[in-house]
Amino acid sequence: MSFVKYITSIFMVLFISNCTSPDDNTKKEKVIPDRITMLFVTQPECPSCEKLEKVMRLEAPKKLIESYFEIKKVYLGEKIPDNLIPPNGTPTIYFLGSDDEVLVEPLIGEKNETALMEFLTDSLYEFKVTYGVDIRELKKSENNETNSSKASS
Hints:
Blueprint: H1 2-19, H2 22-25, E1 36-42, H3 47-56, H4 59-68, E2 69-75, E3 92-96, E4 102-108, H5 113-131, H6 135-152
Parallel strand pairs: 1-2
Antiparallel strand pairs: 1-3, 3-4
Helix pairs in contact: 4-5
């Protein structure tokens, strides 16, 4: 009978120590990415993809994309991050933060400039909400630091 009590007490100690392990009390801090990833799902000979790419090269979208986004292209059927819903067709663009975290719903199909700008500005806003930082302000402060270090050289 004392052996059963001994085993039971060992299990209780192990259970309690696992419930209060220091790993559980630490929060994993989110890594703030430098840019928002635009995971562009395309395929060869895709007229809608080509039209969307032309819209992305227009002045206003191009300026935002070059400043705050990184485009990664994959072909339909290639592996995409596990947390993403597979695309039904092309073009599909996922807007992702760190660890492939989805910031806004995916852009599906060809869009005009106004619709594309809406997706871009929405993802900038969601970046701010998710990470508590305005990526536009981060880039401005980085540019100011770079310019001031060049001036002092």
